[in-house]
Amino acid sequence: MAKARILIVEDDGDTAQMLRITFVEDGYSVTVVGRGSEVFDETRKSLPDLIILDILLPGMDGYEVCRQLRTTTRTSHIPIIFLTQKDARGDRLAGLELGADDYITKPFDLDELKLRSKNAISGHQRMNMTDPRTGLPAARLIEDQLRTLMSSDDWSYSELTIVNLQPFVEAYGFVAGDEVLRFVALTIGKAIDRFGSDDDFVGQAATDSFVIITHTEKTSQIIEEIHIQFEDTVNSHYNFLDSERGGIERPDGSVAPLMTLASGSVTHRDGPFSDIREITEAAADARRLGSS
């Protein structure tokens, strides 16, 4: 299982270093930034499983960071814990009203912070909110987005599936497989950064399946860019022999092809759709037709 990722936003160097050491020792992958404005670049690189956020930051304060994270579709699901010296009741209520999951005041009990952080991450994953390998929204949040589509127009829903992922995992192991999933998630994020907007939604519907919901006319450019980047880079996940052979040799002598990416899209113009299942089935049909 991939390490859970924590983003710590703390401008006090001693506190930041102490938190980094503590969470790394507990098996987390930790990134630390000292300014609120840096949060958004970090979340574009990789979605964290938890953000521990100070309020009193240089430049953009923690309240504004939280507000922007919560009002941006791609980051609205990430658990946030405020960790701050602001201990007045009004400050706590203001933080919680912005959508923070928890509020801890300084000085704090380190063991309590660790427990609350663990519960925030596991709680989201247990409720099928996020995929633990990529940090992307999972089934429940995808369903919520699809229900929103039923009452809106000018949308596009795309499904992308990694073909031949299972033979790769069988040959190279689950850790290598998780790296492929994170590579695809990052590739999708970069394509949306280039052609889409922060309000576009990316989710992971299954181990080998991703979805994109956009409100843009640039869907075809987003999908094309993902395919180009995937095809240019996927061979780097194989050893030289498999890459040159064009596949993985099985014990019976057959060769499992290298991974490819299959995609299919539908828009509101392909409807009307009476329920969310019709949307996903139409996208799956388009994906199968495109890969046949």
Keywords:
46% helix; 292 residues; four-stranded antiparallel β-sheet; 2 domains; Rossmann fold; globular; five-stranded parallel β-sheet; alpha/beta
In this structure, how is the largest beta sheet organized? 5 strands, parallel
Give me the number of helical elements. 11
Terminal-residue CA separation: 33 Å
> What is the highest CATH level, the class of the largest domain?
Alpha Beta
> Which architecture of the largest domain per CATH?
2-Layer Sandwich
Helix content: 40-55%
Q: Roughly what fraction of the amino acids lie in strands?
A: 15-25%
Report Rg.
21 Å
Tell me how many strands there are. 11
Could you give the order of strands across the largest sheet? 2-1-3-4-5
Query: Could you say which structural class the secondary elements and strand pairing correspond to?
Result: alpha/beta
H/E element sequence: EHEHEHEHEHHEHHEEHHEEEH
**Poorly predicted residue ranges:** none
CATH fold-level name of the largest domain? Alpha-Beta Plaits
CATH H-level name of the largest domain... which superfamily? Reverse transcriptase/Diguanylate cyclase domain
